[in-house]
Protein 1
Amino acid sequence: MKHVAGFLSATFALLGLSASAVAAEAGAGSNLQAGGLKPPEAVQSDASPAKASQTEAQLDRADKEDSGRGLEFVWLNAEVGPEYLGLETFKAGGLVDAKLARSKQAGMMYGAGLGLRLLVFTFGARFRLGNFSDYQLWTLNGEVGMHIPLGRIEPYFTLGGGYASLGSFDTAKIGSNLKGAHGLDVRGGFGVDVYLTNTFSVGGNLTGDLLFLGRSGTPNSVSATASPDQQNAAAVYARDGSSIGAGATLSAVLGLHF
């Protein structure tokens, strides 16, 4: 029993010394924590002042290169330019008397458009009046467009369609029997806007039109003293007429954007 008591006393003395050593080590700032784990060290940012300065320079350059125009919601523009028109480019169905009126003519076009913009897409309406030597052609179309913002320069594509009317004929050349022709216009185009300010732009536009026109016959009596041309015109316009034509327009455009 004496040996056993001595052994137990020595064991407890060693345990006491071990506990004191562990406590002293923990008190000195060891890595031991509750459960034997220590929270990870705070993550140190590796962003040096040089890198931060480089990032700021890139942001400043991007800000200068940005157009700064912000979002656009409403647009309107006016345009003017030469237009070439062929009334019977794809189909000649007696729309006009070929002896009195030239089916292919060049003239001036005047137009205006307005609408809304949603990001890079535009939606609106456009009116155009083509003034030719023997007649006038006007169109009223719905129009959609897709724009490609490149800072102050903005290319775009458009597609539209609507109503077309041929009238205001020169009676001295065509005669008074032709009352008018109506139909459908389909238009596609490409243009570029250059923004001089956030709200004002100048640009150019090239469009092509496909025209489906028709008219009803208008029988009229012809006097005995009428010329052969007048008699021929009366015979032509007494019957229904139609055509499929085409046109091309190059216009200068002034625009406002809000």
Note: The first strand starts at residue 74 and ends at 93.
Protein 2
Amino acid sequence: MPDATERTGAGGLLAGKVILVTGAASGIGRATCLLARDEGARGIVATDRYGDGLSALEAELEAGGADVATIAGDLSDRELPARLVAAATDAFGGFDAAVNNAGIRGRLVQIAELDDAVFDEVIDINLRSVYRCLRAQLPHMYARGGGSVVNVASATLFGVSPGLGPYAASKMGVLGLSKVASKEAGRHNVRVNVVAPGRTNTALFRSHAFGDGPQDAAALVAGIPLGRFAEPVELAQAIVFLCSDRASFINGSTLVVDGGRTG
């Protein structure tokens, strides 16, 4: 397999950079790690709650010539973000970009029937973990003199559905937290932006959209002007761009990648 320079030319968008990715073992996180490798990243720090998937990702990245550090863990563990920063420092001397992608959808439950435990689980993974990651990541990036953070939210920000109360609340919280962080971090040359995916062809989306029933996607695709679901790599392309120096004056923005569905 050719090295990153041969794959992308001129070293790639992330040439010489180290990137940290949560929720890395599948879907958008996995695609982001693979694209970071192909765009010349010097190092990739990856975490996920699913150790088997993380091991498979590590093997694939290393087979393609990437230097990788992985930590299996659940972001409900409030100490994990600090451990990730320490791992990046130990392995690569630090990191230049962070992608806070880990998240869950949770069960579809009407608000009138919602249980606190269901609400708390979604908020803890989708919102509180982003806060903890930012709290661990930003001081490190300030000390390095700059960097980029991309928080992955959802196009649900702009078009909600019944039963998604905890999920919508968590992702709207990510947007608000990111907006504030961009004001604070920008003064330290650290950019904080949001990517809001629409319906994306991942195992997580398919499991919630179709469950165990027949996978008739026609109704779900009908509202997307481009006429299809996004592929994970298309979200990764948006994320990697925002992590790169090509996005050097983009801060506090939300990039919606949903094929025009909520436009």
Note: The beta strands are 18-22, 43-48, 68-72, 97-100, 147-152, 190-197, 254-257.
Protein 3
Amino acid sequence: MKISLQSAGQTGIFLLLVCLSFNVTAQHFVPTAKDSRVEFRIYTHKNGNQLIRGLFPGIKGNIIFNPKQLSKSSFDISVTAASITTANTERDRDIQSAHFLSAALFPEIKIKSVSITSDGSVVYILHGNLTIKGITKPVNIQFTATPNGNGYLFRGSFQVDRLLYNVGEKGDIDNMVTVFVELRTVKQ
């Protein structure tokens, strides 16, 4: 069986293109619930200036990410509003109540990307929508993506004006909440 040089060259080019396409295809990842978290920090002015920290464990969702193909990358993640923990069960119940998160009526807090861009360094920006209590507003989240085993470690932070989402009222706590997100993911 004779194979022409032209045929062998075409086959080689085809195989090279296939290999390269695997290299730049965005891959699917899921957060590992036990190693991922959303932390928030807010100041209360009752009894002085006190920092309150809280966690939303158990992030779930889908992530498609390839730093070389950001136009095909996306994040669609959520936490359960009732999962909040601040190390104070009375405060947790208050935050879950209708006055703040209305966790019974709006069980999920979601972030869904519209696009992902880069600042030209190792920092990426998720341009997306944050939904709290059924209210969706645009948000930009700066984050880093570090390869980690068969996934990535995504770390980012942003600020949210809680009043835009009808979370509480003006009063003894700051309007601005600082949110830190840490996602450890595995390939799906």
Note: The radius of gyration is 22 Å.
Protein 4
Amino acid sequence: MKAIVLAGGYAKRLYPITQNQAKSLLPVAGRLMIERLLDCLTPIPDLASIHIVTNDKFHPDFCKWLDAYRPANGHVEISITNNGSREGSCEIGAIGNLHLVLDQEMIDDDIIVVASDNLFSQSLEGFAGFARSKNSPVVACYTMEDTQHAGQYGYIEVDNEGRVTFFEEKPAEVRGPTIGVALYYYPKSSLPLIRKYIDDRHNSEEPGRLVEWMYKRTPFFAWPVPGIWCDIGSKQKLEDANRLFARVDKAAV
């Protein structure tokens, strides 16, 4: 199994904080966002490698960080992929970045895909185990207490077995509290569908667009995220994450 971490954007909603700093290299409660995410990925027993894809602007910063980074679990190989994009032109989009890594690294394996600005308070071993048991594509889901911002994500419905029966990325109107999270599993058997999606020139921006397209073509399941989940999409959410994870870290001591 391999993981692809999507860090190719420019986080313009966080300007000026991210004007000269990659979002996932920002600290959250004293620890870099990317390191918090890797702490949740590296415990997965059969995870062989993690490929972090970023843009040309921040590629040197990620390489410098990786030179100094020492993961808690050393069995996982970590690499940085430069998508070659420049701010304001030739931006590839999340699904485009996923496809780039699949091709460039010649990946022919089960994959976990996660956006680098997603933070979890618990290890993702449970996600990987659930996905393995289904041997089908899986999207993480989360039920929001406050649905005010639910329309910024994908709306999801599942049946009693956890199979996705409906998914709509960023609906015009909020339809319910359960949303899709930018954490996905695609077994090796589903990789041709990803390539077909790209070849047919569908929307390559939001990763949820791939779920919206694929669940109608193959069984797709949802995994409820336990504990705390944060998506750092704004300055307010960054402030909220600092408070939340300061409490999480304190409780873990």
Note: The chain has a mean pLDDT of 90.
